[in-house]
Amino acid sequence: MRTMSRRALLSATVLALAAAVLPAVGADEISHDQLMHMIQSAKTPADHQKIAAVYEQQARDDQAAAEKHQSMERMYRGIDPTGGGRGSGQMAAHCKRIADDYSRAAKEHSQLAKLHRDAAASAQ
Predict the structure, then answer these.
(1) N or C: which end of the chain has fewer CB within 10 A?
(2) What string of H, E and C letters represents the secondary structure of the chain?
(3) 29 and 50 in contact (C-beta within 8 Å)?
(4) How far apart are the first and last CA of the chain?
(5) C-alpha atoms less than 13 angstroms from C-alpha of 104 in its C-beta half-sphere
(6) Structural contact between residues 69 and 101, judged by C-beta atoms closer than 8 angstroms
(7) Closest CA to 22 of 111, 116, 124
C-alpha cells in the first residue's frame, strides 16, 4: 500500500509539473528536430509527458484535417468538376481517401501519446 501511495503522489506531482511546463512550451510549436531530440533524450516521466502532449496535439490536428476532408467529400458527392460527369464521384473518393488517412494518423498519434504516458508512469 505504501508503494502505491508513493506512486500516486509521484504521478500527481509529474502531472502537475507537466501541466505547468507544457503551456509555456506549446506542443504545437515543437519542430520535428526538437521532437526527435526529445524522444532520444527522454528519461524522466516529465520527458515522456511532454512527448505525449506533442502527439496528442498532432492527433487533434489530424482529426481536424480528417473532418475538413469529410466535409469536402460530402460537398463533392454526386459532383465531379473534372469532367467525369455528374455522379462519377472521383473527387469525393479522393477526399474520402485523404480523410481516412488523416483519421488513421490521428489514431496512431493517440496511441503514441498513450505509450509515452505509460512510459511516464513506469519510469517513476
Answers:
(1) N
(2) CHHHHHHHHHHHHHHHHHHHHHHHHCHHHCCHHHHHHHHHHCCCHHHHHHHHHHHHHHHHHHHHHHHHHHHHHHHHCCCCCCCCCCCCCHHHHHHHHHHHHHHHHHHHHHHHHHHHHHHHHHCC
(3) no
(4) 16
(5) 6
(6) no
(7) 116
- Condensed to tens digits (0 to 9), the pLDDT of residues 60-99 reads 999 999 999 999 998 888 676 565 555 567 888 999 999 9
Alpha-carbon span 83 to 80, nearest angstrom: 6
Q: How far apart are CA 77 and CA 14, in angstroms?
A: 48
Domain boundaries, the chain: 2-122
Amino acid at residue number 59? A
Q: How far is CA 42 from the centre of its chain?
A: 18
